[in-house]
Amino acid sequence: MHSAEHRLSIIMPVLNESAGVADALQALQPLRAEGVQIIVVDGGSTDETVTLAAPLADLVVQSGAGRGRQMNAGASQATGDALLFLHADTHLPAQADQLILDALGKGANWGRFDVSIAGSLRGLGMVAAMMNWRSRLTGIATGDQGIFVRRDLFWQIGGFPVIPLMEDIVLSASLRKHRWPACLMQHVTTSGRRWQKHGLWRTIFKMWQLRLRFYFGADPERLAREYGYAASR
């Protein structure tokens, strides 16, 4: 196991994730045993998230709410040469650490995985395929795809923007100026709960509408509220 310095640090932002955080972190314990640093960044949970996460992480960091702010706070404590930003409802493929390090060793500066969406709703496979195809075509990744990046490049571009929505899109656009992402074909699996709750086509339409409005300068706070996030996120 590596000591103070790590080759890879995984940063997981959480907020009131007591229902699933233990399972999410338990799945990362084989990587932790191999020397991967696990950092959980709590955005002010009012449930048992922190208590459940503490024994399963190397660090639990407190931060103001908002994924961008939380992930920056985690990155500031990371000792890994590479950073992987992982949502609490997203699960990695086998040997994810080696897949990332191999990609970076072959000259990539950053990248992401293909994604699968868990759930019984018909059409989720099509949505995931569209996400993966769009990402390859545009060089833009979403947080659900498990974005990874060299630590020095992450800070060179200023980290995540502290905005309540689309922080992953802005980060990808900044990273893309340096190099096209490594698009790994192995799949992370993310929760389909938003599609299940709101319906497939309604969710697709809402996401594209919000992204288009953001591109044309709409206020991220307002878009976040419409998406279902509190303004502080």
From TrEMBL:
GO terms for molecular function: glycosyltransferase activity. GO terms for cellular component: plasma membrane. Keywords: Cell membrane, Glycosyltransferase, Membrane, Transferase. Transmembrane segments: none annotated. Pfam families: Glycos_transf_2 (PF00535). The keyword Transferase applies. It comes from the Bacteria. CDD domains: GT_2_like_a. It is found in: Cell membrane. Residues 9-119 form the Glycosyltransferase 2-like domain. PANTHER family: GLYCOSYLTRANSFERASE, GLYCOSYLTRANSFERASE 2-LIKE DOMAIN-CONTAINING PROTEIN. This is Glycosyl transferase. It comes from Parazoarcus communis SWub3 = DSM 12120.
